[in-house]
Amino acid sequence: MTILMPYIRAFAVGGLLCLIGQVLIDYTRLTPARILTSYVVAGVILGALGLYEPFARWAGAGATVPLTGFGYAIARGIREAVGERGLMGIFSGGFTAASAGLGAAVIAGLAVSLLCRPKDKDQ
Questions:
Q1: Residue 3 CB burial class (10 angstroms; 0-12, 13-18, ≥19)
Q2: With a threshold of 0.85, does the pTM exceed it?
Q3: Per-residue pLDDT tens for 68-98?
Q4: Distance, C-alpha 93 to centroid of its chain
Q5: Residue boundaries of the structural domains of the chain
Q6: Of 20, 33, 58, 67, which is most buried with the most CB atoms under 10 A?
Q7: What angle do CA 31, 36, 40 make, to 5 degrees?
């Protein structure tokens, strides 16, 4: 059972974050873009306050894979870069910390755009 607990926690936390997003979509007038942006900003704020790191250690991929984890990675990268490079780290730290995820998203988007044909919604 000890081997399964990290997977169960990650699934439960990731599912809860998705559930919150779906409830916001269904029961508020917030657009999905605003909800996604809010998740990233929440991750940045919680990461800057030092609250997201213990949560991410406990929840594993359930907290680091969703958009809140992306915001947390940006905040952590900026904090580390400021410690190493001073004030200039504000401008480079977020890009360095999130470069793997951004690169993967760009490559996946390119691959899908080359392999799939766009269609109109009416068809």
A1: exposed
A2: no
A3: 888 888 888 888 888 888 888 888 888 888 8
A4: 16
A5: 5-115
A6: 67
A7: 145
